[in-house]
Design goal:
Blueprint (H helix, E strand, L loop, with lengths): L6 H28 L3 H6 L11 H9 L2 H33 L4 H13 L4 H14 L5 H25 L3 H9 L4 H12 L1 H17 L2 H6 L9 H6 L1 H5 L3 H22 L1 H12 L2
Helix pairs in contact: 1-14, 3-14, 4-5, 4-7, 4-10, 5-7, 7-10, 7-15, 8-9, 10-14, 10-15
């Protein structure tokens, strides 16, 4: 006879089940509603469709600007995350290797850390005014904002991770005649790839799903919209036909779900190593 579950473990399973249900149920509703006709939705919103109706998805792909907004989101996400994955480890490497010898680098490190505690709502109005003044209310300005805002968390995680790498590896590289940039890209950067994978996933999720910053920066024309802005304005364009809206939601979810499914195992490992090493 199998042993009874202890009360603590039973409670843990209960909370895990409730958490899984809270995540799965909205996805379930999105999928079934996207594959229903308007008549099926009117009869019962929660039951699965009688057949897989693809007319909603076809309509979104062919009769809206959905592909334009996907292209905008892909451009902003890919460029932003690529710059973050290259620029932030360079900054972190400089800080990690000099903060113990130079007070200035230590000041820079804590300066970046302090920014973590500043809510975005505090800086959004000044940020918008500055972006207007320098004429960067565009995708370029949005990418610059993402890079700047990503420095705080990324520098914190990368610095701890880089400090765990033995200095002897870099000293051997210098003895072989490598410069600092060559040592970083040939020796250090390959060793921090687990953390880079974590940073890429976290920032890709953030940039792809972000609504507030594009709302502030890309309000010049709807041709600049990213996917979250398209989702927000969907009801204004189509009087919120739920079958079409949920089809658009499903299409917008697919790329980031695929990315997360393939790379989610790096998130916990990278965060743990970055926070505890050093």
């Amino acid at each position: 006879m199998s042993a009874r579950l202890k009360p603590g473990r039973a409670s843990a399973y209960l909370f895990l089940s409730l958490g899984a249900l809270a995540i799965i149920f909205p996805i379930y509703l999105t999928v079934i509603t996207a594959l229903k006709t308007p008549g099926e939705i009117a009869r019962n919103f929660f039951l699965p469709p009688g057949s897989f109706y693809l007319g909603n998805i076809q309509y979104i792909l062919t009769r809206s600007k959905f592909l334009l907004y996907v292209r905008n989101s892909l451009f902003v996400t890919v460029v932003s995350v690529s710059l973050i994955a290259v620029f932030t480890p360079m900054v972190s490497y400089s800080i990690a290797r000099n903060m113990d010898q130079s007070r200035l680098y230590k000041v820079f490190y804590f300066y970046f850390l302090l920014a973590i505690f500043v809510p975005f709502q505090v800086i959004m109005v000044p940020l918008t005014l500055v972006m207007q003044k320098i004429n960067l209310m565009s995708h370029t300005g949005l990418i610059i904002c993402y890079l700047a805002l990503a420095l705080t968390q990324s520098v914190f995680l990368y610095t701890g991770y880089i400090k765990s790498i033995p200095l002897e590896l870099e000293e051997s590289s210098f003895m072989d005649g490598c410069s600092v940039p060559q040592t970083f890209f040939r020796i250090v950067y390959p060793l921090i790839m687990p953390m880079t994978a974590t940073i890429v996933i976290l920032n890709a999720l953030w940039v792809w799903n972000d609504f507030l910053l594009p709302l502030l920066v890309l309000n010049k024309s709807n041709t600049f919209w990213t996917m979250p802005l398209f989702m927000f304005n969907f009801k204004n364009q189509y009087s919120f036909e739920s079958n079409l809206a949920f089809a658009a939601f499903l299409l917008a979810l697919l790329p980031i779900i695929v990315l997360y499914s393939f790379m989610q195992r790096y998130i916990i490992a990278g965060l743990t190593n970055g926070a505890l090493k050093g």
